[in-house]
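Subject: design request, 191 residues
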């Protein structure tokens, strides 16, 4: 796959979208650094390699589709019960409040660089609050595109999860990572 000019559809069949959390506080050894996968998301990207100003990307995430894939560290391994509890907590009013805010959206406002190294500025909307965010990305010669952005939860009114009377808490900054392994033309079947 090479990054050629065109309009492309994005989603779980073309790549992965992950959220990685860290721990803070005196009780951080008891908790886990989580890798959470977004299982239902979709988007479109227009690539104009010779004219990045004409390129854009728009991605929508179903807020209740976050699944815990991994828990590193901690005093004991992450169990299926832990995973279910974390998923329930993510949807809670204090965090994402998925019942009232079912989607998260990213819309680019500018793209700079080359297909090998680029920066996307855009607007991220979580819980009906829109704030700027910058995505850093790289493409390799085989067409694999990967990147990341730092999202500070409190900027969107999300109170980082705490336990043990605040001794264990998730760090306010989470890292959102993406890997796109193939590009599917947006005018293909079903699009």
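Subject: RE: design request

Done. Sequence follows.
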């Amino acid at each position: 796959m090479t990054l050629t000019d065109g309009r492309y559809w994005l989603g779980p069949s073309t790549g992965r979208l992950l959220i990685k959390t860290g721990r803070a506080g005196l009780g951080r050894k008891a908790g886990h650094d989580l890798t959470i996968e977004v299982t239902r998301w979709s988007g479109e990207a227009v690539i104009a390699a010779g004219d990045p100003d004409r390129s854009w990307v728009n991605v929508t995430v179903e807020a209740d589709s976050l699944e815990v894939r991994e828990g590193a560290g901690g005093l004991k391994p992450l169990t299926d019960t832990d995973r279910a509890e974390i998923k329930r907590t993510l949807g809670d009013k204090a965090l994402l409040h998925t019942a009232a805010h079912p989607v998260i959206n990213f819309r680019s406002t500018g793209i700079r660089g080359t297909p090998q190294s680029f920066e996307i500025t855009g607007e991220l909307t979580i819980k009906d609050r829109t704030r700027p965010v910058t995505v850093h990305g790289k493409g390799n010669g085989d067409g694999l595109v990967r990147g990341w952005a730092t999202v500070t939860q409190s900027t969107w009114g999300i109170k980082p999860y705490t336990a043990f009377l605040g001794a264990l808490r998730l760090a306010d900054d989470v890292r959102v990572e993406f890997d796109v392994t193939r590009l599917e033309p947006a005018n293909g079947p079903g699009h």
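The first strand starts at residue 6 and ends at 10.
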